[in-house]
Every structure is written in structure tokens, then in C-alpha cells.
Amino acid sequence: MKIAIPVIENNKEESRISEHFGRAPYFAFVELKDDKTHTFEIEENPFEDHSLGDIPRYLHDKNVDLIVVRNIGKKALNFFEEYNIKVIRGVEGNLKKIIQMAKSNELKDQDYTEDSKCCHE
């Protein structure tokens, strides 16, 4: 399974998840081999100043199966639904924690919104 996680830094497994999906400066790509082994790489977000649909198309083209985010807009969610890519919202922490949660099947979707800080529609 290939997982994409928007992160705010390129600090290996200590990289923290970004509050804003589309404006994250980096994406971590985690390939789970089984419940014990994984590989990962971190890439700069080529669409930090994106147009509608750029990032979902980019992640689809990278054969991502699952997106793990803190927060995401409804329009992006609709694109991922069209691409049949699962989205888990409301996750926080660093890559190490998120990878461990994925391996132990503890990632659960939570409708996370923070209206005072975010303007997603």
C-alpha cells in the first residue's frame, strides 16, 4: 500500500504532518510492505501554488492508495473520491507515529475542521 502524507519539513521520520494539505511544502510517500517493513521518501510539493485538481492528479499519477491528512477541503476530497483514493482526515503527529498507526491499522477518519483557521470549501 502506498500512502501520501503532506508534511511541513524534510526531517526523515521526524517530519510533522502539515495542517494544510494543499499548501504543504513536502509530501512523504510511504510504501508499506507488510506490518513490519516499509520504505519512504520525501519530495518537495511541485504544486505548492496549485490550481484546482493539480495535487490530486499528481498523487493519482504516483499510484497512491491512501492520503493521510490533518485537514482537507471538500473539492480535493471529491477529486480523490473520483480517483478511488481513500482519505483519512484528522491525523496529527510525525511520520514515525503515523507509519506505526498505519502498520497496526489504527488510522481512523475523523472529520477535522478548524473553522477559525481554515477556509476550505
TrEMBL record:
SUPFAM superfamilies: Nitrogenase accessory factor-like (SSF53146). InterPro entries: Di-Nase_FeMo-co_biosynth (IPR003731), DiNase_FeMo-co_biosyn_sf (IPR036105), MTH1175_dom (IPR033913). Residues 14-102 form the Dinitrogenase iron-molybdenum cofactor biosynthesis domain. It comes from the Bacteria. Signal peptide: none annotated. CDD domains: MTH1175. This is Iron-molybdenum cofactor-binding protein.
